[in-house]
Amino acid sequence: MDKETVKGTMDKVKGAAKEAAGRMTGDKTLQAEGKADKAAGAARQTVGDIKDAGKKVADAIKR
């Protein structure tokens, strides 16, 4: 598993927590930050998944 995948997952968790806290307190700015963090985390996770796939292909070619 690539580091970007792990970091992306952590960003998504952080975003979900911010969004929930914003919803509970009625803080629209915090909710928006949470949504942005979740989106950034998803993108970062996708990058990590692509790197993982590339490594698997490279390993398969080496064999």
Q: Could you explain how this protein is built, in words?
A:
The chain is an all-alpha fold and 63 residues long. It has one domain. It has helices at residues 3-25, 28-62. The longest helix has 35 residues, at 28-62. The mean pLDDT is 95.
Reconstruct the topology from this structure.
Layout: H1 3-25, H2 28-62
TL;DR?
With 63 residues, the protein is mostly helical.
Could you name the key traits of this structure?
2 helices; mainly alpha; rod-shaped; CsbD-like; CsbD
How much of the sequence is in beta strands?
Answer: under 5%
Percent of residues in helical segments? over 70%
Q: Sketch the topology as an H/E string, one letter per element.
A: HH
Specify the overall morphology.
rod-shaped
Q: Structurally, how many domains make up the residues?
A: 1
Identify low-pLDDT runs: none
Biggest sheet: strands, sense, closure? none
Helix run count: 2
Determine the structural class based on helices, strands and strand pairing.
mainly alpha
- How far apart the termini lie comes to 20 Å
Radius of gyration: 16 Å
The total count of strands amounts to 0
Average pLDDT, all residues: 95
